[in-house]
Specification:
Blueprint lengths: L3 H13 L2 H16 L5 H14 L5 H28 L1 H7 E3 L1 H10 L6 E5 L5 H9 L5 E5 L5 H10 L5 E4 L2 H12 L3 E5 L10 E5 L2 E5 L2 H9 L2 E9 L7 E5 L11 H22 L21
Parallel strand pairs: 1-9, 2-5, 2-8, 3-4, 3-5
Antiparallel strand pairs: 6-7, 8-9
């Protein structure tokens, strides 16, 4: 990830660069980065995408997908920083809510019952979150528990329009339960391996992966709905992203709490998996998701 200084510079560029030039620079950066096969982010992305696409994927197609992913994320960052630089009107114009998202928001959000909103790292999730924040619903975002300068800067961007961003911690989780019990919304990502010693082994693209289940625990503790959100770039429509919400899931407690958490965690993860299958080159995962894979799937 870029340094905080680089992010500030990128926001400045977003203000002064016209869109066509911004995308030209983003595309050039994507070509340069994606060609560095030994760079950590490139290697991890290639490994993760090969699981998504299948172990028999042609190497040339896999490399093309890696390049397309870097192209998408470079453009997404340009669009994010440009929107941040230009303000709320540009943020609102850059994100289109689907009819289903609008219906879910109108029916369930702010109606007195808490909502745990979960998503994956795809599309332009930060820009989508900023557009959502313009709606004014009290929302706590549980972010990755790291204090690096670049993560701090990203969280500052996420907080610009009223989102309450809290890095993962025991106090943050206690706050999340209270937020939900008072009818608020708590949002978090579910496709990145959690800190060591947490999470559960779930099936993700037919392979076991240790992934978060805390979002289900929160829903159970606070009698909240689970809602899966998706952000994605519209093909052929530059600078515009969609934001969709799946129908809310009612979390019903079972006799075995651990089994219940795994059941619902797997259910919402399957929805994220389906979305990634539709847009594999918009999934920005630069961390090893699968610790072990069969030997014959040499990734």
């Amino acid at each position: 990830m870029a340094s905080a200084k680089a992010i500030r510079f990128a926001i400045h560029l977003g203000r002064i660069l016209p869109p066509r030039l911004g995308y030209w620079i983003a595309d050039a950066a994507a070509r340069g980065l994606s060609s560095r096969r030994n760079m950590h982010d490139v290697a991890m992305l290639r490994r993760n995408l090969q699981v998504v696409l299948g172990p028999q994927t042609d190497p040339a197609r896999l490399q093309q997908m890696v390049h397309q992913t870097f192209r998408h994320i470079a453009r997404a960052y340009y669009d994010l920083y440009r929107a941040v630089a230009l303000g709320p009107d540009q943020i609102a114009a850059a994100v289109e809510f689907t009819p289903r998202a609008r219906a879910v928001i109108d029916t369930y959000f702010g109606k007195g019952r808490g909502i745990v909103a979960v998503t994956g790292h795809y599309g332009n999730f930060d820009l989508a979150a900023l557009a959502y924040s313009l709606l004014g619903f009290p929302t706590q975002v549980i972010s990755w528990p790291r204090s690096r300068e670049d993560y701090t800067m990203q969280n500052e961007i996420r907080s610009l329009l009223g989102l309450n961003v809290t890095p993962l911690s025991i106090p943050a989780l206690k706050e999340a339960v209270q937020t939900l019990r008072t009818g608020g919304i708590v949002a978090t990502g579910i496709d990145r391996p959690p800190p060591a010693g947490s999470g559960e082994e779930l099936m993700f693209f037919s392979y076991p992966a240790r992934l978060p289940v805390g979002h289900v625990r929160l829903a159970l503790q606070a009698n909240a709905y689970l809602v899966v959100a998706h952000s994605y770039h519209y093909p052929g429509r530059p600078h515009l992203y969609g934001l969709d919400f799946e129908e809310p899931i009612e979390v019903i407690p079972g006799p075995d709490r651990q089994q219940t958490m795994r059941l619902y965690a797997q259910r919402v993860l399957a929805l994220v998996e389906d979305h990634i299958r539709q847009h594999p080159d918009q999934w920005y995962m630069f961390h090893p998701v699968w610790e072990t894979l069969p030997v014959n799937d040499s990734l």
